[in-house]
UniProtKB/TrEMBL annotation:
It catalyses: (R)-pantoate + NADP(+) = 2-dehydropantoate + NADPH + H(+). One of its GO terms (molecular function) is 2-dehydropantoate 2-reductase activity. GO terms for biological process: pantothenate biosynthetic process. The lineage of its organism: Bacteria, Bacillati, Actinomycetota, Actinomycetes, Micrococcales. Catalyzes the NADPH-dependent reduction of ketopantoate into pantoic acid. Its EC number is 1.1.1.169. This is 2-dehydropantoate 2-reductase. It comes from Microbacterium aurantiacum. Keywords: NADP, Oxidoreductase, Pantothenate biosynthesis. Pathway: Cofactor biosynthesis; (R)-pantothenate biosynthesis; (R)-pantoate from 3-methyl-2-oxobutanoate: step 2/2. It is an enzyme of class 1 (oxidoreductase).
Length: 345
């Protein structure tokens, strides 16, 4: 019998992933907190516009408040909430997770331990996601990286359900390439390194990712932020791993891991016109995940005695934007570059 699957957080990435699973004939329920999006999907279905071709499905979808009305548990829940929503979202869905059910954190940030705190490590899988999508209109997703260019890494924490990884891998394989790892915490940190280089820094410039890359000095900012994050990860005991299509030889490249990863990210995953989730959040007047990304590096840098001036500058500027003191603009690169120079001294 097909497992009952829930997508908890059916925003741009969650809905596009859910559409792939529905098209594959799986039993999927979407759970979403934006009322207009839920009602649009109920009325007209879900449309995903992608380089692979448009996809239109009619999902079973619930408002977040309707979770309390559920009577049958889910076998697999794929969580695609914001990192800062992880603790309460895990508690929300835990009563509706089958006794042998799995909760998979398909999101940015180091969220797997927070999920395990709620449902237990034995029911937790961690997942790295590399998929770019945008939603500005309810019920319509613009997915920039189709299935052929989307990528996941999947694994269990220590004490986790290693025997269930293949089952979830087969599910996610309908939405992209899936790599299985026995070192999911390290893989998640490597994704954090990549996120620290790009998500918030490019959003601070108010530009799509590819456009930001061409702002003079921005590449220096990206590499410096990533190298700080990599150093903190190493101090925490996270192994440097090849992700996003890298291999072991890439880790020995004289240019450095962060530079190689940045080049591979832009050549394989970033497409013209695509903006980061952070800039999308700011455009909608929402807070970003900066505390769970660059802020995570700063916090652990302090604990490990490793300076992180570039990530600290990114956090400070991002909070200024979110509190209305600044606006995203290309000239903010100058303040980030000043932090790069500070770190080099």
């Amino acid at each position: 019998m097909s497992p009952r699957i829930a997508i908890l957080g059916a925003g741009a990435n969650g809905a596009s992933l859910g559409a792939d699973l529905i098209a594959a004939g799986l039993d999927v329920t979407l759970i979403e907190q934006w009322p207009a999006h839920v009602e649009a999907m109920r009325a007209d279905g879900l449309r995903v516009v992608s380089p692979d071709g448009d996809l239109h499905v009619r999902p079973h979808v619930l408002h977040l408040c309707e979770v309390a009305e559920l009577r049958r548990p889910f076998d697999v829940v794929l969580m695609l909430m914001k990192a800062y929503d992880t603790p309460w979202a895990a508690r929300l869905i835990e009563p509706y997770l089958a006794g042998t059910g799995i909760l998979v954190g398909v999101q940015n940030g180091m969220t797997a331990p927070e999920i395990a705190d709620v449902v237990g490590a034995e029911r937790t899988l961690g997942c790295v996601i590399e998929c770019s999508a945008t939603m500005t209109e309810p019920g319509v997703i613009h997915r920039h990286t189709g299935v052929s260019r989307s990528w996941f890494a999947l694994g269990a924490l220590r004490g986790g359900p290693t025997d269930r990884v293949e089952e979830v891998r087969r599910i996610l394989a309908h939405a992209g390439t899936v790599a299985v790892t026995t070192k999911i915490a390290a893989a998640k940190w490597m994704k954090l390194v990549s996120n620290c280089t790009l998500l918030v820094p490019s959003a601070l410039l108010g530009l799509p990712m590819l456009d930001a890359l061409h702002v003079p000095g921005f590449r220096r900012v990206m590499v410096a932020a990533g190298e700080e994050a990599l150093a903190v990860g190493e101090a925490l005991g996270h192994e440097t791993l090849p992700i996003f299509g890298l291999d072991e030889d890439d880790l020995r490249d004289p240019r450095g891991v962060v530079e190689v990863m940045t080049d591979r990210l832009f050549s394989g995953f970033v497409v013209p016109g695509a903006t980061t989730t952070v800039l999308q959040d700011w455009t909608k007047g929402r807070r970003s995940e900066v505390d769970d990304l660059n802020g995570e590096v700063v916090t652990h840098g302090v604990l490990c005695g490793i300076p992180t001036p570039v990530n600290a500058a990114v956090v400070r500027l991002a909070l200024d934007v979110e509190q209305g003191r600044r606006m995203p603009a290309p000239d903010l690169v100058d303040e980030m570059l000043a932090a790069v120079d500070q770190g080099a001294r």
